[in-house]
Hints:
alpha/beta; 6 strands
Amino acid sequence: MADIQAALRYRHSKDVLVEECNMGSAHAGCRRLDAWVLLKTWSPWTTIGYEVKVDRGDFLRDRKWVDYLPVCHELYFACPAKQIQPEELPPEVGLLWTTSGQRLVTKRKAHRRQPDTKALAMLMSYALMSRARIVEDMWAAAGTRETNGERWRRWAEEGAKDKELGALVGGRVARRMLELEERARSAERDASRLQSIQEQLNSLGLGDCRYPSDVSRRMNPGAERLATVRNLAERIVRVAEGAA
């Protein structure tokens, strides 16, 4: 059995594996899976149960494994080669055989099914409460051994980097704000000039003209009035070009 458990650990070295996983419910007779796995993927989210059998007589006598179906998306039997045949298992249950090299070979893939939400939650609660460990020193838990001096030095270095980054970002923000303020002042000046021109056009009875050509069609042929209108038209064009 130890060899099969080792093969399961290798098979799920990148997943969450809980050996001898209690289902966490006294009503289920304290059933215990030989191994329960949570795959590290969301495509789709998958849990797998494993029942290990190294004795054929044990397999033939065992009827409790049906209680494992509600706590996993897939259920597999794992055994030495040829000890259990695929046709001896229900269609939804998978089968793994070990080879001479202690590798696991899939003889039949398990059908994916929807586990019972409450039963799965009970099992996962057990896995968290019995296997998780809250530690005081997170650096030690992560395998990072730092002296107090090293820890303070790292803190100071990170603080200096943050300060440097803050100064850089702050300088860019300040320059951008100055640019925006200058644009706003320029727009205010243009708006003031356009308002002055509009008032003069109104005084000449040309307030509803939108373009210089409108002014030309309606202007009085008098020399003095013509010069004034032309001057206004040129100012409108300059302001428009400046705004563009």
